[in-house]
Amino acid sequence: MKVIIKTTKAYEKSIEKLLSEHGRNEMENQIAVDPLNWPVIRGTGGIRKARFSRESIGKRGGGRVCYLYLTIYETIYFLSAYAKNDKEDLSEQDKKKMRKLVEQILEAIGGE
Fold it and tell me: Taking the complete model, does pTM exceed 0.70, yes or no?
């Protein structure tokens, strides 16, 4: 399956601090191969969270990426990325922002 990958400015800004270009491409490709493989974060409107290892750190000290996969459009929206040691889980405020972002994306593409 070939999916379309889209990113937000927030994702672009955060991912460049966490991974090299090669590491980023590997992580994005791994998610693109099976975007339904990672769990949906409850209360976010369908956003999923994937773990990734950072060069010389591994998964435990690695990072997290939040993305929205819209199956009907075969599109992945990479929304944010962060180091596990910076944030373990999303706060309720983070989840609320994510829900709003999902609504904006769906509105922009004409879906619900």
Answer: yes
| Interatomic CA distance for residues 107 and 90, integer angstroms | 24
C-beta of residue 99 within 8 angstroms of C-beta of residue 78: no
Q: How many helices (H) and strands (E) does the chain have?
A: 3, 4
CB-based contact 60:54 (threshold 8 Å): no
Q: Running along the chain, 112 residues long, what does each successive block of 10 average in pLDDT?
A: 92 94 95 96 96 71 92 96 84 94 93 54
As a whole number of angstroms, the distance between CA 68 and CA 61 comes to 23
- Report all structural domains of the chain as residue ranges with CATH numbers, in order of start: 4-109 (3.30.2310.20)
CA-based nearest residue to 94, from 49, 34, 33: 49
38 DSSP 8-state letter: S
